[in-house]
Design goal:
Layout lengths: L1 H20 L8 E7 L5 H17 L3 E7 L2 H13 L6 E5 L3 H6 L7 H5 L17 E2 L2 E2 L1 E8 L1 E5 H6 L9 H11 L20 H14 L17 H17 L11 H9 L5 E4 L3 H7 L5 H4 E4 L13 E10 L6 H11 L2 H11 L2 E2 L2 H6 L1 H5 L1 H9 L3 E2 L7 H16 L5 H17 L2
Parallel strand pairs: 1-2, 1-3, 10-12
Antiparallel strand pairs: 3-10, 4-5, 6-10, 6-11, 7-8, 7-9
Helix pairs in contact: 2-14, 10-11, 18-19
């Protein structure tokens, strides 16, 4: 009996030791996909990867795959996938297509999650919640914002004898002519005054700023009719076409330049000024030799002295959304929260220069208060607004873009191209 007892004790001890030495059972892991067009950019890509690494460490039961998508292909890829019940679990959108995504059911209603955290959005600017809200239901969380500004190269301005950034469009046009030149005597023109993004990716922010800078807009205030038949709209449209075709103060091939291409030209010192958001870190990363934070400066969008409109620019806003088809909504919500908490909002500014959708971050975070670009940006917010928040907006914007392309290519006169855009938009808005 004693031997049996010893054997039993020894067996129990061995089992206990084996259990202690055995590896702990693996944590059950959920895999999410986070998709963002800026993941393909150097600065933003690095920032997003670091944020997702931090999220995974804080949430060891969740793994996140980062999925880049080209901005020009984003909506086609997302909507195709979402219609078939697929697509990324969490994804980013700018303000333009949000209403269509909501009304088509391509994003998940976040109201049930927010109901459990009633104070979660108390720190957000109320106006920023408008685009992500429909019939009282919130479908997205605003992340970063920036008004469109005039970004200019002080070294090129000094060399061209331009003392100050242009305040009106006549000054802007004159400055662009002075900045356009051959940098080597007898050589070809290799420096230009400015550019306007005419490719899909980024057209909205730039052309809209010109329109509003002239006191014009795309639609009437009730969003029921086109406003492109006004004298102000005609003036703005012809101004752009003449700078390209007559002055030739914009980069050749400007019709194909997208937002990132515009930043690259600015980084390379090839243009003196651009209409751009607070993307100075991205420009700096493209060409460290430029010393962008020293060489570049920001100003408000030029204004037509005859304009009586307070709105002179627009707000770029990036928000995060949840796929209605995700099999892991609770995990996706945890990721949404993390990407918008205060620490991450501060990270986005430190890395990429964009302002926060959270009021307290912009008003109390010292690096924002001390930054010469951010201080201009925060002042311009009150003069900026969103583009029309209607489902037809993406189609309307593309109609205007193609009409401007036709005028630049001289397949239509500027007046005819604008008149055609006006009529086509009227048809779009008249559809049941």
């Amino acid at each position: 009996m004693r031997l049996k007892a010893i054997f039993a004790f020894t067996s129990t001890l061995l089992v206990s030791v084996a259990s202690a030495l055995a590896p702990a059972p693996a944590v059950a892991q959920v895999t999410l996909t986070y998709s963002d067009w800026q993941a393909a950019e150097t600065v933003w890509g690095r920032s997003l990867r670091e944020a997702l690494d931090a999220f995974e460490k804080a949430n060891p039961d969740i793994k996140v795959n980062l999925e880049p998508v080209a901005l020009g292909q984003r909506d086609t890829r997302y909507t195709t996938a979402l219609r078939s019940g697929k697509g990324p679990d969490v994804f980013a959108l700018d303000a333009n297509p949000i209403k269509r995504y909501i009304q088509e059911g391509w994003v998940r209603d976040l109201t049930p999650f927010l109901a459990k955290e009633p104070n979660f959005l108390a720190d957000w600017y109320p106006t920023l919640l408008g685009p992500v809200t429909d019939n009282g239901k919130i479908s997205g969380i605003p992340k970063n914002i920036s008004p469109t500004l005039l970004i200019y190269n002080t070294a090129l301005f000094k060399d061209a004898g331009i003392a100050n950034p242009p305040k009106n469009w006549d000054e802007f046009r004159d400055a662009a002519k002075k900045l356009t030149k051959a940098t080597k005597p007898g050589g070809p023109v290799d420096q230009w005054g400015t550019l306007l993004v005419l490719a899909r990716a980024g057209f909205d922010l730039r052309m809209s700023s010109v329109l509003r800078g002239f006191g014009a807009d795309y639609l009437t205030p009730d969003n029921k009719h086109s406003a492109l038949n006004t004298p102000e709209a005609k003036k703005a449209f012809n101004f752009v076409v003449d700078m390209i075709n007559v002055d030739k103060s914009m980069v050749p091939g400007v019709a194909q330049v997208d937002a990132n291409g515009g930043r690259q030209l600015m980084a390379g010192g090839k243009v003196g000024m651009i209409l751009e958001g607070l993307t100075i870190p991205t420009i700096a990363d493209m060409n460290p030799a430029l010393e962008a934070r020293k060489t570049l400066r920001a100003s408000g969008i030029p204004q037509d002295p005859a304009s009586k409109s307070k709105v002179r620019s627009l707000i770029y806003m990036k928000s995060l959304f949840m796929n209605p088809n995700t099999p892991h909504p609770d995990a996706a919500w945890r990721l949404l929260r993390f990407m918008n908490d205060r620490a991450q909002q501060e990270r986005w500014f430190n890395d990429s220069g964009l302002l926060s959708a959270r009021r307290s971050v912009n008003e109390t975070y010292k690096p924002i208060q001390d930054d010469p670009f951010a201080t201009v940006g925060t002042k311009e917010i009150e003069f900026a607004s969103f583009l029309p928040q209607i489902p037809q907006w993406p189609e309307i914007l593309e109609t205007v873009r193609q009409s401007l392309q036709a005028a630049v290519a001289r397949t239509k006169t500027a007046d005819q191209a604008l008149a055609d855009a006006h009529q086509e938009i009227e048809k779009i808005l008249a559809r049941p």
